Amino acid sequence: MLSLEEAQSRAQDLVTAARRAGADAADAVYAGNASTTVAVRLGALEDVERSEGEEIGLRLFVGQRSASISASDMNPKTLATLVERCIAMAREAPEDPYAGLAPEDRLLREAPADLDLIDPSEPAPAMLRERALAVEEAARAVPGVTNSEGGGASNGRSQMALVTSHGFAGSYAGTSHSTWASVLAGTGAGMQRDHASHSARYLEDLEDASAIGARAGERAVAALNPVKAGSSVMPVVFDPRIGSSLIGHLIGGIVGPAITRRSSFLLDSLGQALFDSSITIIDDPLRPRGLRSRPFDGEGLPVARRALIERGVLTGWLLDSASARQLGLAPTGHAGRGGGGPGVTNVHMEPGSVTPAELMADIKRGLYVTSLIGMGVNGVTGDYSRGAVGFLIEDGAIGGAVSEITIAGNLKEMFRAMTAANDLSFRHAMNVPTLRVDGMTIAGG
């Protein structure tokens, strides 16, 4: 894998070659990653894997025509061929009035922020094996756990460099450390499966392996002997580990391409109150050690902390340059690369003012959902229907496990009915506290 300096230099060479070959504008992005993973099962080593990969992509413009091409071979001769092919592709492409690099006057001109994303330590495979054994051992030690799908530990490094023909050049890197376990409880047809994991930029921030494993085991055992939930309309409380999926649907509805295609359930919601005024949702690309932190976006624009939802109100769309031009707006610093389109970084919902127990205290009968199944969500209408696993809530307390249930509603109605507890913690790239949504339709056996 190239160093950051080498990667940025290679991207610069590719852009320079594209301009010399006749491109009116171009940018090049390098992405590299390397990781080591150790997996165990039933106390025995199952797999040790070392992977390393890198790719460089060129995007160029000939008038209003554009093309993109990528390669994993960093040989200069290969990159020269890449330019020739991309020029030929662009000349045959249809014209796009919205194509082009980001506005030059909006490019990041300062030195990229230091977001403390690189842990200098790199655990040896023996240390990863020790952590993998520890997490699985802790999970299997929970009474009621009868089998294991394994435990594992990994560490890795990823890096990115971007160069444009109109004056931007930058690069950054980040490390990651992860631990996970997945186990089974019970026997026969009554077996239940659950898991736990944690990831962090720095090893010192990673949760203890024994705690992760114990949580995986306890979750699997708690799901044993599920009862019937019946069918009704009732409050649903979402555990923080899956409540973030609701915010993911919000994000999908406010990205530029969904708006330009007029295919979003939030199409006419700009500036409107989608949530209760107690709800604020933040995107923060500059969070130190954040799992998705970055000092600039995929087009070289500066990034900043931003409220996507401010006291319940939708503040704007997430735009790259192409979707911004189509809408007659300015790009927002949310551009991605690699075909992913615009998107978010570190997202969280600010905590509410009550504890999870207080959030549930007045629920006579409801559901506490810990896992969701399937993808029955319509991004155009907002209709929501997903399989769910969790626990009954009776008289304000979490009771017996339930499974084979479906929860349904409409996302806009769910957003309006949402209440947040005060138990926010930053464990993932997208974090929410415990969430309550009243008035959902439940179908169960």
UniProtKB/TrEMBL annotation:
Q: Which residues form the Metalloprotease TldD/E C-terminal domain?
A: 233-444
Record-linked Gene3D superfamilies: PmbA/TldD superfamily (3.30.2290.10)
| Occurrences of domain Metalloprotease TldD/E central (ranges) | 119-224
Please give an example of a GO cellular component term from this record: cytosol
A GO term for molecular function: metallopeptidase activity
- Entry coiled-coil feature ranges: none
Per the record, the GO terms for biological process are: proteolysis
One Pfam assignment: PmbA_TldD_1st
Domain Metalloprotease TldD/E N-terminal stretches: 26-90
Q: Which InterPro entries match?
A: Metalloprtase-TldD/E_C, Metalloprtase-TldD/E_cen_dom, Metalloprtase-TldD/E_N, PmbA, TldD/PmbA_N, TldD/PmbA_sf
User: Which family is this sequence assigned to?
Assistant: Belongs to the peptidase U62 family.
Q: What is this protein called?
A: Modulator protein
Q: Which organism is it from?
A: Sphingobium quisquiliarum P25
Lineage of the organism = Bacteria, Pseudomonadati, Pseudomonadota, Alphaproteobacteria, Sphingomonadales
